[in-house]
């Protein structure tokens, strides 16, 4: 095959000379694939900090296989620090990566991705650019012990917050927890949060090497994986193995089932839809819900189960989960893994599911019955919403309650613990104004804490409904991603305190029990909802708010999706004098 980079480097004119000099290539380098190493390491993003060292191992692998490694920086999306949300910038980074590929002589790309949004951004870019690509996933952070228990990042912080608000955890304990969390070192959250979930899905779809989704963030295993990824990508370029051959409808369906089997993050539903949208695949909530109905919880990992991802990896990780699903015909084992083999040829090297003490169970002996995730729709969510059933309270899955409405995150934080707030355990907390357009960026504000005075009475869960997202490390009976969101005129914006809201997960319904005539009156009193968030609307947020799609369509930008095959054609630049 002809390398893409030949368009830059072949020839004897001044333009080709300029290009070769820029990368210090000599005649002996002709025919060597140029491999971009998209580096998201940043001091601002501890989850991706390990890439500073790992990038060199990738480069070693590229060189060993005969390629030319070129490292380039990418905006790092760190979940902990970015405001209002790293999600606001996922599409920007996907564009940055796609345009970097377009503009430069890259024959393939190794994406160094770990923290929540860096992974989907890389997948979206790989889908759109469609040059050979693999992700090197940055692995999980360590789990320091706190009061005799290994700490699950995120999940244990949320639990401790509830304990603190209930007066069970004192100030010294709270400070001790902080010190413990600070000791964990680089790497992704070590529970089945968004990063671990996306890593599993990436591996399942053949976009990372088998067995690499949940490595420890530091150590010889991940260094070997980095080198192997560099080597493998050079071979993929030579064989012209492109993402479009991996990211098929069957791969997407398998990923959706893996998501349910591991009790993964609800955020992954949006990210899968965004990747699918780039390729014209079907990632509708109806399709996902149908896929999820037959999938119980197979991975006993927090926040839905009990273990951490380090042990899940030792018990086989993604390959063993895939084997468990495949045994019931719920995974396409003829699909290609990241190393080029069919999954059914990869699996024998991994532990079987269901072994004594294994965190990976079989379909016949799951951790929890199906479904672990569900899509609901109804008069409150005409375009759908998502709930993580496995992290919810069973007795709240069919529940009707009185709405207690918060118009924004600030409103919720200000009034939630106000003694004057009228709220009972059976009420439904509605947090709106948190959708893709509303903030903009759809932050993880959907899981409102339980009001202080109810926590003190021992209440640990309530039905919550939001057009925002929640952290993959969170738990509770929380209906998320309500679409259309309030900021674009969705019925969530019409709810008033005291309205009755009915959640019926078995029937897949979410309804506002208010007569149509009353809703029409409220809608006309409210006027047309402006399509705009309330703040920070210049530059990228302005472009984002004007073009972002709703959650059920992946919250991608409308001009980046693939309504027809022609729209996904990657246009090569004119290569000449710059
Ligand atoms: Fe980065 Fe969890 S905050 S992976």
From TrEMBL:
Keywords: 2Fe-2S, Amino-acid biosynthesis, Branched-chain amino acid biosynthesis, Iron, Iron-sulfur, Lyase, Metal-binding. It holds the Pfam family ILVD_EDD_N. GO terms for molecular function: 2 iron, 2 sulfur cluster binding; dihydroxy-acid dehydratase activity; metal ion binding. The keyword Cell division does not apply. Its EC number is 4.2.1.9. GO terms for biological process: branched-chain amino acid biosynthetic process. Residues 32-343 form the Dihydroxy-acid/6-phosphogluconate dehydratase N-terminal domain. Residues 359-555 form the Dihydroxy-acid/6-phosphogluconate dehydratase C-terminal domain. Signal peptide: none annotated. Belongs to the IlvD/Edd family. NCBIfam families: PRK06131.1 (NF004784). This is Dihydroxy-acid dehydratase. The lineage of its organism: Bacteria, Bacillati, Actinomycetota, Actinomycetes, Micrococcales.
